[in-house]
Design brief:
The protein is mostly beta strands. It contains 1 helix and 10 strands. Helices cover 12% and strands 58% of the residues. The mean pLDDT is 82. The chain has an 8-stranded antiparallel beta barrel. It has one domain: Beta Barrel (Porin).
Amino acid sequence: MNYRNNIFRKFLLTLISIFLVSFSTHAQSVHIGIKGGVNFDRFNTGDSGRFGRPSFHLGGFLELPLNSFIGIQPEILFNKSNTRITLENENARWNTRFNLNYLSVPILLKITPSEVFSLNVGPQFSVLTNRDDTAFENLGKAFSRGDLSMVFGVQFGSGPLKLYARYNIGLADIGSLPYQNEWKSRQIQVGLSLNVL
């Protein structure tokens, strides 16, 4: 986990440098906005894995254009995840539900082939804020402190209000219990974004 944190810090410093250069050359085109929508989550746990009950995400974003075609879109989101997974130990196997609260920081490349359509792709680092709620007696905490994922998304709209959809693929094993299969997150997001500046 420390290794992933170091990589993330270096990546973040590089992007901040790019942001500063971009801001100085395209300050008139920078946009600040808010966004929110619905989440559908599941975990690949070695068995089929089912999408849990709908949850939500809320947050803000910056749009930092590098030119008319490509830009960078950093965000900060509160991400709620409701999912059902299978747990097991040496004596038993059972299903349970988890309600997870993540603070997520996607740093996305924004590609705009037309005025009404854009693509997003990039990494997302998330910190689990309610890890203590996932603890089991004699087993410990079910989830690790963070998750690293890749985001793939589309966005539609030409005005300040836009519709977007994303699929987030977890790259890290986020489980921390013994006797478990590998857990990797999968998330579908659909929502609306609004440019406020």
